[in-house]
Amino acid sequence: MIVDTLAGSRVYSKAVVAINKIDIAQEHELVRSEKSLPQGWPIMRISAFKGIGLEDLKDFIYDNLGFMRIFLKPQGQDADMDEPLIVKDDSTVRNVCNNLHRDFVRKFRFARVKGPSAKFDWQRVGLDHLLNDGDILTIVVRR
Question: What is the chain's mean pLDDT, rounded?
Answer without folding.
Answer: 92
